[in-house]
C-alpha cells in the first residue's frame, strides 16, 4: 500500500487556487494582473538598463538598486506562468516537481531581496555617517562580495526544502491556497509528520527576514541619530530624504511577507480571501512599486529615464 501511495504521489498534481467564487470573470481579473506584470518587468528592466549604460550611476546606491531590480524581475518571472495560466485558461494543475521548483525560486529570491534591502540600509548609513569615505568603503568589488554572500545564503537555506517536502506522502486534498507554490502551503497538505519542516521553516524565517528586519531597524536608529547631530536643518532634511525610497521598499516588502507567514501558521479556520489577497500583494506589489518609488524620489535617476524616453 505504501508503494502504491508513493507511485501515485510521484505522478500527482496539485491544484492551485486563484480567487474562489470568481471563476466566471477570471479573464477580466487577468487584465490588471497583466498590467502589473508588464509594468513590473518593463520598470525593472529600464532601471537596469539606465544604471548599466550611465557611468554616473555606477555608485553603491544604484548598484544595490540594480540588485533589487534583478530580484524583483526574478520574482515576477517565477510567478507569471501559474497565475496567468489560471486566469487565462483555468488550468489549475501543477506537477509536484514544478511546484517544488517554483517554491524554491520564490523563497530564495524573497530572502535574497530581504538581504538586498539590508545592504541598502547599510549603504544609507555609511553615506550619511561618513560621506567622505563612502565610495572607498563600498567599492564595487566589496559590493559584489556582499551580493554573492546574500545569494549563497538565500539559496543554501532554501535548498533543503524541496528534499524535505519530497519525503512526505500527500494523501489529503491536494488543493493549495494560492495560485503559486509556497513551502508552508504545500507542507500543510501532507499527511506525514511535518514537525521538522515546521521548525526548519521557522528557523529560516527568523534567521533571514527576522534578522534582516532587526538590522534594518538598528541601521535606521543609527541613521536618525547621525542625522539629528547635523547642525544644518537643510542638510539634515536632505540626508533623511535619501532614505525615503528605501523605507518605502522595506514597508512594501516586509509588511505583506510577515503578515502572510503569520496567517499561514496561526490563521487556521479563517476566511481564505485575506490570505489570497495578501499573497498577491506579497509577490506582485513590491516588483511593481519599487521602480516607480525610486524613479520618483531619485532626481538623478528620473532625469536619466526621461532623457532616454525623450530621445
Automatic annotation (TrEMBL):
Membrane topology, record value: Multi-pass membrane protein
GO biological process: one example: cellular response to lipid
GO cellular component, one term: plasma membrane
Protein's cellular compartments: Cell membrane; Membrane
The keyword Membrane is annotated on this UniProt entry: yes
Bilayer-spanning residue ranges: 25-51, 63-88, 100-122, 143-165, 199-223, 244-264, 276-297
SUPFAM superfamilies the UniProt entry points to: Family A G protein-coupled receptor-like (SSF81321)
Origin superkingdom: Eukaryota
Main location as per UniProt: membrane
Keywords per UniProt: Cell membrane, G-protein coupled receptor, Membrane, Olfaction, Receptor, Sensory transduction, Transducer, Transmembrane, Transmembrane helix
Gene3D superfamilies per UniProt: Rhodopsin 7-helix transmembrane proteins
Keyword Repeat among UniProt keywords: no
Family annotation (InterPro entries): GPCR_Rhodpsn (IPR000276), GPCR_Rhodpsn_7TM (IPR017452), Olfact_rcpt (IPR000725), OR51/52/56-like (IPR050402)
One of the record's GO molecular function terms: G protein-coupled receptor activity
Domain G-protein coupled receptors family 1 profile: 43-294
Similarity comment text for this entry: Belongs to the G-protein coupled receptor 1 family.
Name of this chain's protein: Olfactory receptor
Annotated source species: Chelonia mydas
Amino acid at each position: 500500500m505504501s508503494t502504491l501511495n508513493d507511485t501515485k504521489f510521484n505522478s500527482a498534481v496539485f491544484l492551485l487556487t486563484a480567487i474562489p467564487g470568481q471563476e466566471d470573470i477570471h479573464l477580466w481579473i487577468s487584465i490588471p494582473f497583466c498590467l502589473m506584470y508588464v509594468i513590473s518587468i518593463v520598470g525593472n528592466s529600464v532601471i537596469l538598463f539606465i544604471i548599466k549604460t550611465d557611468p554616473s550611476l555606477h555608485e553603491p546606491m544604484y548598484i544595490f538598486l540594480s540588485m533589487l531590480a534583478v530580484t524583483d524581475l526574478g520574482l515576477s518571472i517565477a510567478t507569471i506562468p501559474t497565475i496567468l495560466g489560471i486566469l487565462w485558461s483555468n488550468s489549475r494543475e501543477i506537477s509536484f516537481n514544478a511546484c517544488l521548483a517554483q517554491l524554491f525560486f520564490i523563497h530564495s529570491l524573497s530572502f535574497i531581496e530581504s538581504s538586498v534591502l539590508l545592504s541598502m540600509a547599510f549603504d544609507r548609513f555609511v553615506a550619511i555617517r561618513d560621506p567622505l569615505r563612502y565610495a572607498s568603503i563600498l567599492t564595487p568589488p566589496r559590493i559584489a562580495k556582499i551580493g554573492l554572500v546574500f545569494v549563497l545564503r538565500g539559496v543554501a537555506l532554501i535548498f533543503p526544502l524541496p528534499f524535505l517536502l519530497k519525503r512526505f506522502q500527500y494523501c489529503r486534498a491536494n488543493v493549495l491556497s494560492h495560485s503559486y507554490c509556497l513551502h508552508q502551503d504545500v507542507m500543510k497538505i501532507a499527511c506525514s509528520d511535518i514537525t521538522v519542516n515546521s521548525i526548519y521553516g521557522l528557523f529560516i524565517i527568523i534567521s533571514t527576514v527576522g534578522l534582516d528586519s532587526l538590522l534594518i531597524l538598528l541601521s535606521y536608529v543609527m541613521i536618525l541619530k547621525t542625522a539629528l547631530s547635523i547642525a544644518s536643518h537643510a542638510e539634515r532634511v536632505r540626508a533623511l530624504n535619501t532614505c525615503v525610497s528605501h523605507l518605502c521598499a522595506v514597508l512594501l516588502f516586509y509588511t505583506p511577507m510577515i503578515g502572510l507567514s503569520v496567517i499561514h501558521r496561526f490563521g487556521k479556520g479563517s476566511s481564505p480571501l485575506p490570505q489570497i489577497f495578501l499573497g498577491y500583494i506579497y509577490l506582485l506589489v513590491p516588483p511593481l512599486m519599487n521602480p516607480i518609488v525610486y524613479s520618483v524620489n531619485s532626481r538623478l535617476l528620473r532625469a536619466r529615464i526621461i532623457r532616454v524616453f525623450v530621445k
